[in-house]
Amino acid sequence: MTYENLDAELINELLADGRASLRSVGESLGVSVTTVSNHLQSLEAAGTIKGFVPVVDYDTLGYDVTAILQLKVEGEAIPEITDRLKAVDRMITVYEVTGEFDIIAVGKFEDTDSMDEIIKELLVEPAIKESNTSVVLAAPVECDQFELPVAEE
After folding, report:
1. What is the distance of C-alpha 26 from the center of its chain?
2. Residue range 92-111: average pLDDT?
3. Residue 8 phi, psi dihedral angles, 5° rounding
4. Would you tell me the crossing angle of helices 33-45 and 22-29 to the nearest 10 degrees?
């Protein structure tokens, strides 16, 4: 097994079960616990693996409104606006993008009233020249991760 394949297989094992013990991962991959630990530490040090977090279903917690905000922003104000969006605890994703809009943000809200309140607070910013908000009706896939390809040996 190559170094790259081991890293990919280790990541795939953790995607399947992020709470798996080093021992069970090692057994599954046919390597020692020390090898798993060393590779995991290397992946974390490189920033490839940035932590282990639970996958939260916000709908079950009452955050069943998802909104996508598209913003046209004066160029020099983009970093300021993205920082402001990052500071809003309901925003789960913020992108600087190419195309018609400059920023796309995704937020989770308890209801349309709370969504409206937070969005209106953001839109008073004079650097935001135009906005478009879409409410998600269904999310067949959301925040999904994919397994890495592993080369055949």
Report:
1. 27
2. 97
3. -65, -45
4. 110
